[in-house]
């Protein structure tokens, strides 16, 4: 009897794991280097997503649906990828604002990932929302903004083939919106 229960449990886990989908996400920066940075900040990225949207399993980045609408979890192959992608896009936006990222800087930009999620059915939406706080070394908040980016994609013939490009567009949209915020007088007066 125990052997039959273990075999059934193993089979159930095998079926569930077969339903999960994996992708490899990346961010292609808009700018390759900083031209004459005029200031610097340290950058700290925190994965603060809700438990049901990647906060429990940091590799989870969304949900795709099969032909009948049945949901399958979507994972990146790297459990630290979300933080790295947000770091890359934020660094890119700061570069455009002529702010370099340097550890040990007297100003720290804390970027807390609130949303990094893709969901839909045939048509999908990827959303990236980050709460950015510029702090001094004592932790005093000098500036704050919640910055978002989004993009849509269509599944087509592949259940996951559109995911990487959709997230690239959402991250680029986030970086563009972050650049607008990093160029505001309220931000710049605290870093320059």
Strand content: 35-45%
CATH architecture: 3-Layer(aba) Sandwich
What name does CATH use for the topology?
Rossmann fold
* Number of strand elements: 8
Specify the structural class. Answer: alpha/beta
Provide an overview of this structure.
With 192 residues, this protein is of the alpha/beta class. The chain has a single domain, classed as ABC-type transport auxiliary lipoprotein component (Rossmann fold, 3-Layer(aba) Sandwich). The chain contains 4 helices and 8 strands; from the N terminus they run H-E-E-E-E-H-E-E-E-E-H-H. The strands form 2 sheets. The protein has a 5-stranded mixed sheet. The chain has a 3-stranded mixed sheet with strand order 1-4-3, with no helix packed on it. Helix 2 packs across helix 3. The longest helix has 20 residues. It is elongated, with a radius of gyration of 19 Å. The relative contact order is 0.19.
Short characterization:
The protein has 192 residues and is α/β, with parallel strands linked by helices.
Task: Name its key features.
192 residues, alpha/beta, Rossmann fold, 3-stranded mixed β-sheet, 4 helices, 32% helix, elongated
List the helices and strands and how they pair.
Elements: H1 2-19, E1 21-23, E2 39-47, E3 60-65, E4 71-76, H2 81-96, E5 99-101, E6 107-121, E7 123-136, E8 141-154, H3 163-182, H4 185-191
Parallel strand pairs: 1-4, 2-5, 2-6
Antiparallel strand pairs: 3-4, 6-7, 7-8
Helix pairs in contact: 2-3
């Amino acid at each position: 009897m125990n052997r039959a229960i273990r075999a059934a449990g193993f089979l159930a886990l095998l079926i569930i794991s077969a339903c999960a989908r994996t992708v490899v996400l990346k961010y292609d920066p808009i700018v390759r280097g900083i031209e004459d940075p005029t200031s610097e900040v340290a950058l700290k990225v925190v994965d603060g997503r809700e438990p049901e949207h990647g906060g429990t399993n940091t590799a989870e980045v969304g949900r795709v649906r099969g032909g009948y609408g049945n949901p399958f979890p979507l994972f990146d192959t790297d459990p630290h990828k979300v933080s790295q992608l947000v770091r890359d896009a934020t660094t890119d936006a700061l570069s455009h604002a002529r702010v370099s990222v340097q550890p040990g800087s007297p100003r720290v930009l804390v970027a807390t990932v609130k949303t990094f999620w893709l969901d839909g059915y045939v048509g999908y939406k990827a959303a990236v929302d980050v709460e950015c706080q510029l702090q001094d070394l004592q932790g005093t908040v000098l500036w704050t903004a919640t910055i978002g980016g989004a993009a849509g994609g269509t599944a087509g013939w592949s259940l996951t083939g559109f995911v990487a490009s959709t997230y690239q567009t959402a991250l680029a949209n986030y970086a563009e919106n972050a650049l607008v915020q990093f160029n505001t007088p309220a931000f710049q007066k605290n870093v320059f």
